[in-house]
Amino acid sequence: MSELLVRSLEASTVFLLAALGELVNQRSGVLNVGVEGLMLFGGTAAFVVAKSSASYALGLGAGVAVGALLGGVHGVFSIRLRGDQVISGMGLWVLSFGLTTYLGSPHTGPLGLPPFPTFAGLSPFVHAGVLLVVAVWFVLSRTSLGLAIRSAGENPAAAAASGVNVPAVRYLCVVFGGTLAGLAGAAYTLSYNPVWNYNFLMGWGFVSLALVFFSMWNPWILLGGSVLFGAMWQLSLNPEYVLPGVLSRYVWRTVPFLVTVVTLTVISTPWFRTRWGLAKPQALGVPYSD
Amino acid sequence: MRFGAWELSVERAEGASPARVAVGALVAVALALLLASALFWTPEAGPWAAYRIAFGYAFANPSGLGATVHRAAYLLLCTLAFLVPLRGGLWNIGLPGQVYAGALAAFGVAFWAGAREAAAPGPWLLLMPLAAALAGSAVGALVGLLRAKLDLNEILVTMMLNSVLFWLVADFIKEGGALMSATAEGESFTLPQDFRPPLLLGLPPTAFLALAASVASDFVFSRTAAGYRVRTYGLNPQAARYAGIDPLRVSVGVFVAGGAFAGLAGYHYFTAVPGLYKIPTNYGYYGDLSFYGMICALIARGSAVGAVPMALMFAGLSVGGRFAQGALRLPFGVDYAILGLLMTTFVLSHLVDRYGFRWRRISPPRAARPQPEEAR
User: Fold this and answer.
1) Torsion angles phi and psi, residue A22, rounded to 5
2) A67: exposed, middle or buried (C-beta count within 10 Å: 0-12, 13-18, 19+)?
3) What is the predicted pLDDT for the residue at B170?
4) What CA–CA distance (Å, rounded) separates B102 from B135?
5) pLDDT computed for residue A243 by the predictor
6) Could B336 and A97 be called an inter-chain contact, meaning their C-beta atoms sit closer than 8 Å?
7) Which of A176, A237, B213, B263 is the most buried (most CB within 10 A)?
């Protein structure tokens, strides 16, 4: 059972890291629906580099760097060129899906390194995830940079009039979001499930994206949501802990996705939006031109 | 950037002409193939060997050509499934899920009719595609409803439903599932002869249906009030609301139609293509292939007829790519890599539509005229 708990926390961390980066992205007004693609690329780069060099540090660095780079590419398209953010995000996802399948396939199989080091019985990514939640909450709600980020996402024209460099703030956020997506991918392939297979995420990035909406753009609610979804994900892989012998294991695999749809439906109802859902950045997905 | 008396600048364009859009699409495809050639380069064969082998197999080899045409029909149906909602400004990323739903429904009808044993004659050949279209539509209707009623992001919902339906197919064809083959684990039973659609010129009816639907789709969007309403909603939902266009009808309508096309695509590939007639172990690959339909629709800029040659070419690329992969011992995923690169070059071509190079002459500054004496 404790093994299940540990695995649940590790799964939660992958969701949390990707979703936290996307939350910061969205608070600045930039939507990246291609977060799964960034995770795929980051995870594949981390896996290939770690396997080739036998170094977790190098692998981790590669995953994070690739994520940051792709975040920057999304930034150039959506901020500098004021392109459609959905097209850019979908482009990044399909590109990553296609290229990682081809480039990663010679490395299909286990990582072949000793298990990722743990700290207090947990992967260091878990601790890093919690610290990042605290840091993001602090920056967003207690610093002038956080105010600039939030104002860029709410009313960029007003932010610019008050001296905020909106494009610079948005670039910072998309690169940060890409970095965390790359880190989430690396956490998946180096620690949570160190076996490479094509399209290994199969929807984790999209669940992370849904978690941002679920969190109402609040890092603390995001942390809770990630823990909930991580536990649910792990239980869907091990249903014998909950209802042994009831339904096939394949039906259980559908549960996290079905719950995501139901959750999204509930939080999108007018009642919920009126009562709690006022936190959505007003300028989300809208290109800014000064 | 200045070159003597001339200046080259990049400027935002208000709108692109159809000719420019067409050239942009062709350049996007050519650029993707060029980039992919670098990936497929091997010291023994050179960069173009993969394409020579791929296109040679896909279009000049009788068995390859057959596979290409069947796959093109599948991609064309997937293109329509993506394109119809796209004209309404909505992204149907749920093609794989709707394809699986269609396949499950068609095999469900066959199972119910007793296809695993000695089936009694019946209208199964009509009921199977109908069930497939209805199943795809039902999945689409849910997405359209959630989008229209609750403004729920359709990309997220369709991606979730893709995963749900992927695992549901596994449930039906693996570990003793209802549709599992009696002789092989992990795939469905094979359809008996009576349940296979007749072939005309070697092609099932769904191939002709895909072509006819492409023509009909362009007609509906360019010549009918319903098409006009969908396009208006797609271009500006706010203005469409002011004009009295019902968002619910548009959103649900386009997703129902799109889902029906995807369901038929599932029916086509798993029940109507000679040599298959079952849901195979690698059914996920066919779901992934459906994303080529998305690329076809995007590169053809919403024209279903314009997407026909695209579908044929991409079908050839994916069929031939797999063949070249084996012949040149390339890593798995040649067709996936091309898919990714095509999407990237499409995004770039989208940018080219929005920006243009302007080359203009800079007038030299006028010399000051000498003032008349009295004016001083």
Assistant:
1) -70, -35
2) buried
3) 96
4) 6
5) 81
6) yes
7) B263
pLDDT exceeding 90 applies to what percent of chain A?
80
DSSP β-bridge partners for residue B358? B9
- Token pair belonging to B200: 């005309």
With contact defined as beta carbons under 8 Å apart, do B270 and B128 qualify?
Answer: no
pLDDT, position B376: 46
- Would you call A4 exposed, middle or buried from its count of C-beta atoms within 10 A (0-12, 13-18, 19+)? middle
Cross-chain residue pair A90–B91, CB shorter than 8 Å: yes
A103 touches chain B (CB under 8 A): yes
- Chain B residues with CB-CB distance to A101 below 8 A: 332-333, 336-337, 340
Tell me which DSSP letter residue B152 carries. Answer: -
Q: Closest Cα partner for B209 from B264, B254, B256?
A: B264
pLDDT of res. A3: 86
Q: CA–CA distance from A149 to each of A139, A213, A285, B77 (Å)?
A: 9, 18, 14, 44
Residue-wise pLDDT tens digits, A46-82: 999 999 999 999 999 999 999 999 999 999 999 988 8
- Is the pLDDT confidence value at A173 over 90? yes
- Asked if A29 contacts A93 with a C-beta cutoff of 8 angstroms, the reply is no
| Per-position b or e across B216-235, b if 16+ CB within 10 A of its CB | ebbebbeeeeebebbbbbbe
Q: For residue range A236-271, what is the model confidence (pLDDT) as tens digits?
A: 999 888 788 888 899 999 999 999 999 999 988 888
Instruction: State which fold the B66-309 domain adopts.
Output: ABC transporter involved in vitamin B12 uptake, BtuC (1.10.3470)
Q: What is the pLDDT of residue A277?
A: 61
How far, in Å, CA of A197 to CA of A108, rounded? Answer: 5
Cβ A265–B152 below 8 Å, yes or no?
yes
Rounded to the nearest angstrom, the gap between the alpha carbon of residue B301 and the centroid of all alpha carbons in its chain is 12
Closest residue of chain B to A102, computed from CA coordinates: B333
Contacts of A204 in chain B (CB under 8 A): none
Instruction: Tell me the residue ranges of DSSP E strands in chain B.
Output: 2-3, 6-12, 355-361
Q: Where do the domains of chain B lie?
A: 66-309
**Quick one: pLDDT at residue B366?**
57
Q: How far is B20 from B25, CA to CA, in rounded Å? A: 9
Q: Which fold has domain A2-275?
A: ABC transporter involved in vitamin B12 uptake, BtuC (1.10.3470)
